[in-house]
Structures are given as C-alpha cells and as structure tokens.
From TrEMBL:
Keywords: Glycosidase, Hydrolase. The keyword Hydrolase applies. GO terms for molecular function: hydrolase activity, acting on glycosyl bonds. Transmembrane segments: none annotated. It comes from the Bacteria. This is Arabinofuranosidase. InterPro entries: ConA-like_dom_sf (IPR013320), Glyco_hydro_beta-prop_sf (IPR023296).
Length: 835
C-alpha cells in the first residue's frame, strides 16, 4: 500500500490517498499500517507492517494544499465554489474509506480534520480572491473611465472624504449618489453597498453610472519615474508647457502666463501669492521695486527698509524727527528740538508746553492749542513736508504747522497750514499747501490730503520763487501752477513759528492742535522723483496705509458748504462696514480754485480703482468734458485724461455726473454722463473706453427717457437680469425709476412725483442690490445727496420686481463727521475683513 497527497486535487482541502498493494498470492499476508505518530519535529511518521517508514510533514501537507488552492483560484466564482464543495465531499469520502480498518480510521479521521481545516482556510482566500478579481475589473473600468474623461477635459472624480465601512458613516445607500463622488475607506468593514460587502482600508467607493463601484486600492499612490509630453500637460484648467524653443511656463485657461522660467533660468512671476492673501510683487516703475502688497491693498516696501537713509540722501536743510534730538524735562515737556542731520538751526519753545510722547510708529510732539515752537530759518523754503494729524475740529480754521512772518507784522511770508473744517462744524482734517506772500494768495492751494480726524497724514508743498506748484506727491499728475502777485518774500517781523502764527498786532494766533511726528525743510525745490521717494519712505516708516471697510463711498465736498460759486471742491473718500456709519479715508488729490471736481464716481476695474468726476468748478461753468483718474490703493490718484463729449461735431457746453457701471453680459466698463448738446436740455448718454488705458472713448449714445426733457444724475445697475435706472427729473427735482432689458434702453419710467417719499431737492442717487433675505425677498438700498445736509439712505425689501416701486424707508442721514455730497457707493474689492 501507499500513502500520499492527491496532487490532482489542486483547488481544495488536502485529499489523503491510502492505496492498497496489488493482490498477492492467496494466503500471503497483506501489508498494512503498523504505526502512525508525529515526531518532535512535527513530521507525520507512518510505519507499514513490512517495516517501511513513510515520513510526511504535516504542516507542509496543509500549507501545500492551501497554497495550491489560492494559486489556482480562477475568475469563475461558480467553479471555485464547486471546488470547495467537492473538497468537502472528498473529505467525507476519505472518512468512509478509513472505516475499513480500525487503525486506518484513526488516521483517516485525523486527515479528514486536517482537510476541514484547510477548507476553512480556503474559504476566506476565496472571498479575498473574489474581491481581488472584482478589484482588477474595477481598476480596469476606472482607468478606462478616467482616461476617457481626461480626453474630454472632464474630471471624473469628486473627492468627498473618508468612509467608515464598518458603521456606514457617512451613510451610503445602493443606487443613491452623485456622479463622480469618491470616498476612501478609513475603517474596514462589511457594509453591503451595490453588491460589494468587503472593504479594506485604502479601498475606494465610487459612484458612477447610477451605482456605487468598488474601487480597489483607490488611495494607493501611482508612481511614475518620468512623465513625457511632446509639448504640454494639462492640469485642471492650467497648462504646463515647455519645449526647445520656449521657456517653461504655466498658463491659466485664459492664456495668461502665471509663471515662467526663461532659458537662462530667470524666474518671472506675476505676483507671488502668500497664504494670507497678500502678494510679493515687483514693479520697476516704482522707486521701491519690491514690495509686499496686502489683501487689503496696503503695502510695505521690502527693498529699502532703511527709511532714514533714503530721506537723508536728499539732504534736507532741517529735519525734525520726534524720535531723536528732542530734549524734554522729567514730565516730557519739550525744551528744544534739534535736527537729525547737520544743521545750524534748532527749535526752541516759544510758548506753552508741547509734550513728546510715544506713538505706535515712534514718537510725536503734541501741540495743545496754546503751545508753539520758534525757528530762525533765514530763507523761504523750497519744499516742506510734514507728518502730522489734527486731533480736534474746534480750533482755528487755518492752523499753521510751520511758517515765518514777513516784515509786515501779521502778514506771513510763508506758511504751511493744516486746514480742519470744510465749512461745517465737526468736519474732517484737510491740509492746505504752502501759502506764500500776501493774503491775496490765500486761495492758492498747493496740495491737499484729506483725512479723518485723528488720522496721520503727509502734507508737502513747494515754492520755486514765483509760483506755487502743487505737491505732486504720489499722484504723478500735472502740477497746478498759479501766478503770484510780485511781492518780495522777505522774512522778518516777529520771526518764524511751528504750531502758530502772528496776528497783525503781534499776538500768536492760528494755533495748530494736533501731533507732529516729523517736519522736513529744504532750501530748494525737490524734483518729482525726490519728493515721491521721501513721501514713500515716510509712509512706510509710519505705516500710513489705507483703512478700508466692506463698503467704499466716493463723494465731494466744498470748503464752503452749499456755496458752489465760491467754494473749492475736492474728493472725499469714505469707508464703512455696515453702510451706515462711515469714516474718512486719507486720500490725496490735487485741486485748487481753477482745478476742482464734483460728482465723484468710483469703481474697481482691471486691478485698479478708477474715478470719473465732473470737471472744473461751478463758478467757471461746466465745460465739455469729464475727468478720469486711477489709483492702485484708493488713496493716491493719478490723472488719466479729460474726456470730451461731442456728438455730430457739436460739443457739450455743460457736462455733469459721469457714473460707472459694468455690463454683466460682456464685463465691459461703461458709464453714463449727462450733457447739454445743442439747444436741448440735459440728457443721458452712454460712453465707454476703447482701450485699457482709458484714453480713447466712444461717441456718446443717447439713452431716451420719454417725457423727461431735463435729466441728470442717473445711476444704472443690473438686478436679476433687468436693468434699473435711478435718475433725477431736474424739472421737478425728484428721483424716479425706469427699467429696461439692456443698459442703453429703451427705458420705461415706472414712477412719478414724490412716489417714494424722498421729497424734492435730492439728487445723486447711488443704489446697491444687497442680496435676498431668508424669505427670498429682494433687498435694496439707495444713497441720496441731501444737497448740503450730507448723504442719506433709504431701504426697500420685497418681492422682485415689485420691490422697486413699493415702499421705501424714510431717508436717514449717514453717520459721518462731515457733509459730503453726490457720490457713488461700491462694495470694497479687498476689505480688511468679511465680504
């Protein structure tokens, strides 16, 4: 007889064969099993009756059977199950055969138990193989789907996070899901979803074609040592490209180059974005080429941190810096103030108790309205620059920062004044430029910087001997020149002062109430680039950056409220987080009695703020043009151009209130402007720039409002696909509403008379769509110029479009420390916080 393993039984539990020998001569003893035992090495020792020893490794037998079963599992699951059943049946057959002999029964029963153990081990192998086969099929299908989707430019997967397959969390149900949703298995389990019930960590469950698909090893990383492309690789909407003739570059879907590495290795990047929303940017056209630009538009120059050295290289004749050179007593009262650069002149106390104190950016000297310092400069300065702030609005209307008396007592030879009120109580700080000569030149503004009360600002002015030149500052606009009366500027009389001036009787007057951080004086006129460099250094040194909220409002105000004929009109910039309480934003703009502005309209386009305004002063009569300005930070403005309005060769002889708007259909920047062309009344016209520089403009296109021969102050906006035009009926001096399907009409007027309760005498509407409330109601707000009383606002909430002509709230005046007039409110494109 022989004993062995059935090699033909390759995919089931072990089948032990006990075969007898061929029949011998009758009467000859047969060969049987004499002994069966397991030695201390785990081997099965079988001794036959003829003393032949058969040695089998029991572990090897079991392992061999299991390995053969796993190695030979096919993809036909039914065959696999049949093989397992056959293996179990074979084990039973072995058990029956063993019953022929008592000893054989013992051995057969033992091998039957071993066979059952092997079968039990084969069952999980079968389940694993089932998943493996399904996984391979799924992988192939997934690759096919993803390749097809990639060729079509579509991303096939939407990653949704991790899935607990033991708890079914988040819950996934068979046949329910969004196309492309993919979860990765974080906890193994047996949740049954669309026929799959065995999940291992790292597997994926992917919803495609209406059911959840088992995605084997979805989280495994696929590694390729090299990825080759003939020219470019698409990643999402971006293209990464390079070849022998072109540099390596990354372009967005619009074709803009976001990053480029040239053949020489030079890196070119359009602003390096940081995680907080700020950007590292370079602009060789600026004095400081490298700067860090915050998400709110503020900036810090990075390539010139030594501000003092930058200023010192321009050699001021006198440099008073409150951080150095100030001698005080024990209580901080100033005794003297020396220049931080070599200078034969120092400053001493004239009267009062000016006090030195620490600020967030350094130090300053506080003037309380009764204090002044004296200086002995023997010359009329060519340039003066001051860093200061007003702290009250109840002091002199003409506070003197620095000046010198002339030979005629009470008549200043020159003075730098920081004007406080704009003709009304509680107004904001406004700086006047250098006043030179007699009082006849008092209206000769040389530069102006508006600021909220208490805000630090920089004021500079120049005098070249016979004209007052506007301090070009950061505006880069053409300086305003104004001829002076030929009066010799001879210092004398009572001498020079800082913080006050002399009256005709020699008494101190026009006290400055506020803080002075730095005062720089040159005996020459700085060039425009020198002036810019000094101002930028001071801005960075004192962190003089814009403070903007969620909303911005551009408006104008006059030096004499309501007196359009005699006032000097200038820009007012306001900021708010709720649209009701507003603060002034320090803003530099150049105007004098001959170059003023009104009806300021602001928007954000092409990465910059742009401003359109009515040009010239009311006294000179509105002309045939409006003005365009631009700014990168909303504070410092560059003059762009004057846009002349003419139709069929006939120029407008009055031009009012340009108002920006964007057409959502094409993103085009456009505006409406109000002109009297020919003998008719004021009408509304559409115009738009023909280039990105805003230099060339289209011909005015008439927007007809039937029955309204006198229309000014229109404000267009698109709400839910419908164009709405707020406009002023100049004949009745009331605001009406018209609607249309396109921005240029034709418009249908929807209201009449005092329909909203806003009354007569209001103008300059600026409207905002504030979104929908929880009930789906449309929320609107309109700001109105109350003509000398400030800006008011009115709200409406209701179903669209009935809300337009429904009930509006009674107008309320804005909370702001001045009385601004006609302007435009926009959402700030980069507020400090929130949107």
């Amino acid at each position: 007889m022989s004993i062995g393993v059935d090699q033909a039984q390759s995919n089931g539990p072990v089948n032990v064969l006990i075969a007898g020998s061929a029949p011998g001569t009758p009467g000859t003893p047969g060969v049987g099993i004499a002994d069966v035992r397991v030695d201390d090495q785990g081997q099965l020792l079988i001794t036959k009756t003829d003393d032949e020893l058969i040695t089998l490794s029991l572990d090897a037998v079991v392992q061999l059977a299991a390995m053969q079963a796993a190695a030979n599992i096919g993809t036909n699951i039914n065959d696999l199950e049949a093989n397992v059943v056959a293996a179990a049946s074979s084990a039973v057959t072995s058990q029956g055969a063993a019953a022929e002999s008592d000893k054989s029964a013992v051995v057969a029963e033992q091998h039957a138990a071993d066979a059952k153990t092997a079968a039990d081990q084969a069952v999980p192998l079968l389940a694993s193989a089932t998943n493996a086969v399904a996984g391979v099929t799924s992988d192939a299908a997934a690759v096919k789907v993803m390749l097809t989707a990639a060729l079509n430019g579509d991303a096939p997967l939407v990653y949704c996070g991790y899935w607990d397959a033991a708890k079914n969390s988040p819950q996934l149900d068979s046949g329910v899901g969004n196309e492309g949703d993919l979860y990765l298995v974080a906890v193994a389990g047996t949740t049954s979803v669309d026929g799959a019930a065995a999940w291992n960590v790292g597997d994926g469950i992917w919803f495609t074609n209406g059911h959840w698909q088992y995605f084997a090893r979805a989280s495994w990383v696929a590694v390729a040592q090299s990825l080759y492309a003939l020219r470019s690789v698409l990643v999402g909407s971006h293209e990464i490209s390079a070849d022998a003739a072109l540099p390596f570059q990354i372009r967005d879907a619009a074709g803009n180059v976001a990053l480029q590495v040239a053949q020489d290795g030079a890196l070119h990047v359009l602003g390096l974005g940081l995680c907080d929303g700020s950007a590292l940017d370079a602009d060789t056209s600026q004095p400081s080429a490298l700067r860090l630009v915050g998400s709110d538009g503020s900036y810090v120059d990075l390539d010139a941190p030594d501000y003092e050295q930058r200023i010192a290289q321009h050699a001021p004749a006198l440099w008073l810096d409150a951080a150095v050179g100030v001698v005080t007593d024990d209580s901080g009262v100033v005794q003297s103030w020396s220049s931080r650069v070599a200078s034969p002149w120092q400053v001493t106390v004239k009267t009062g108790t000016p006090v030195r104190f620490a600020t967030a950016a350094g130090y300053a000297v506080r003037f309380d309205g009764t204090s002044a310092l004296s200086h002995a400069l023997p010359f009329t300065p060519g340039t003066i620059i001051a860093v200061y702030r007003n702290t009250v609005s109840t002091a002199s209307a003409q506070p003197v920062i620095m000046g010198s008396d002339s030979a005629t007592a009470g008549t200043p030879a020159w003075s730098l004044r920081g004007y406080i009120p704009m003709g009304v109580p509680g107004a904001y700080a406004r700086a006047q430029g250098l006043q030179v000569g007699t009082s006849a030149s008092v209206s000769g503004f040389a530069g102006r910087l508006n600021a909220a009360l208490g805000h630090w600002q920089i004021l500079g002015a120049t005098y070249d001997g016979d004209t007052i030149a506007a301090a070009v500052g950061l505006t880069h606009a053409t300086p305003v020149a104004r001829a002076l009366t030929a009066t010799p500027l001879v210092c004398g009389g009572s001498g020079g002062l800082i913080g006050a001036s002399y009256s005709a009787s020699g008494i101190l007057t026009d006290f400055f109430v506020g803080d002075l951080a730095e005062l720089l004086v040159w005996d020459r006129v700085l060039t425009g680039r020198e002036y810019d460099d000094v101002v930028r250094a001071l801005q960075s040194k004192h962190s003089l950056q814009p403070v903007f909220g969620r909303f911005l409002y551009s408006a104008f105000q006059t030096t004499q409220a309501g007196n359009e004929a005699g006032g000097i009109e200038g820009l007012v910039m306001l900021s708010s987080d709720d649209g009701v309480a507003w603060q002034h934003v320090p803003t530099e703009m150049l105007f004098d009695a001959e170059h003023t502005m009104r009806d300021a309209s602001i928007t954000y386009h092409g990465g910059r703020f742009v401003l359109a305004c009515t040009a010239s002063s009311f006294a000179a009569g509105y002309q045939d043009r409006f003005s365009v300005w631009q700014s990168t930070d909303g504070r410092h403005w560059d003059f762009v151009t004057d846009v002349q309005c003419a139709l069929n060769g006939v120029s407008a002889h009055q031009t009012w209130a340009p108002e920006w708007y964007h057409d959502p259909a094409d993103g085009q920047l456009r505006l409406v402007v109000h002109c009297i062309i020919g003998t008719g009344g004021s009408q509304v016209y559409e115009m738009h720039p023909l280039d990105d520089l805003l230099i060339s403009w289209s011909v005015p296109q008439l927007i007809t409002l039937a029955g309204y021969p006198q229309v000014i102050d229109s404000f267009p906006l698109c709400i839910k696909g419908q164009w709405v035009l707020f406009f002023k009926d100049e004949a009745a001096r009331q605001i009406q509403i018209a609607t249309a399907t396109s921005p240029t009409g034709p418009y249908t007027v929807q209201t009449s008379g005092n329909w909203a309760g806003w009354g007569s005498g209001v103008e300059g509407p600026s409207a905002l769509y504030l979104g929908d409330d929880a009930d789906g109601n449309t929320m609107l707000r309109v700001y109105l110029d109350a003509q000398g009383n400030g800006i008011s606002y009115s709200d409406a909430v209701g179903k669209w479009p009935d809300v337009l002509t429904g009930a509006w709230s009674p107008p309320k005046l804005l909370s702001v420390a001045s009385r601004p007039q006609h302007g435009t409110c926009i959402r700030n494109p980069f507020p400090h916080y929130g949107a």
